[in-house]
Amino acid sequence: MSVDHIRGSISDTARSEKLACIVFCLIDPIFVATRFWSRWTVRQIGADDWISLVAFVRLGTSLTTCGVLINLAHQYGWGHHTSDLPAKDLEITLILHWTFQITYKLSVALNKASIILLFLRIMPQKSYRIFCWALLTIISLFAISTIIAGVFQCVPVDKAWHKKKPGYCYPL
């Protein structure tokens, strides 16, 4: 079902979200390729580069998916008040929102890990390296816990998008 009948246009918001997805999908490969090319030429590809590649692939998948899903989400009323949406459109929009939360948290954690691993590569001081490893551990544990909390924010899980289903949701 389309939301053309809903008052008020969000076309400006939809266009800017789509534009952001397109821009990052075009720019990110250039940066990652340049990074790998420069590391390859000096024969110094490290763990930070590989994590950066995983983050890029994860983010690239996320952005591509994001582009497709944002188009889909806007078709089902993303950006409109929930009270203005038909029940089926609201359910689809909430499923998409739940999915975005998980992919976003994973992508951010991988990018943070890549930066910390880069710091580990360039900083020789023992105290700084210990701090970086501690920070990497905190980032990893935080990412795992927020992803688990996001997935299981409602009991049963599908209550996150079936609002009238019996159960409860934690306020995240």
Account of the protein in words:
- The protein is an all-alpha fold and 172 residues long.
- It has one domain.
- 71% of the residues lie in helices and 2% in strands.
- It is built from four helices and two strands; from the N terminus they run ααααββ.
- The protein has a two-stranded antiparallel sheet.
- α1 (11-41) runs antiparallel to α2, α2 (47-75) packs antiparallel against α3 (87-122) and α3 (87-122) packs antiparallel against α4 (126-151).
- It holds the Pfam family Fung_rhodopsin.
- Its main location: membrane.
- This is Integral membrane protein.
Please list the strands of the largest sheet in the order they lie side by side.
1-2
Helical residue percent? over 70%
**Total helix count?**
4
Shape: flat
The largest sheet is: 2 strands, antiparallel
Report the portion of residues in β strands: under 5%
Number of individual domains? 1
Number of strands: 2
What is the terminal-to-terminal distance? 29 Å
The unreliable regions are 1-11
Please summarize what this structure is:
It is a multi-pass membrane protein. By secondary structure, this protein is an all-alpha fold. Helix content is 71%, strand content 2%.
Chart the SSEs and their pairings.
Blueprint: H1 11-41, H2 47-75, H3 87-122, H4 126-151, E1 154-155, E2 168-169
Antiparallel strand pairs: 1-2
Sum up the structure in keywords.
172 residues; mainly alpha; two-stranded antiparallel ribbon; 2% strand
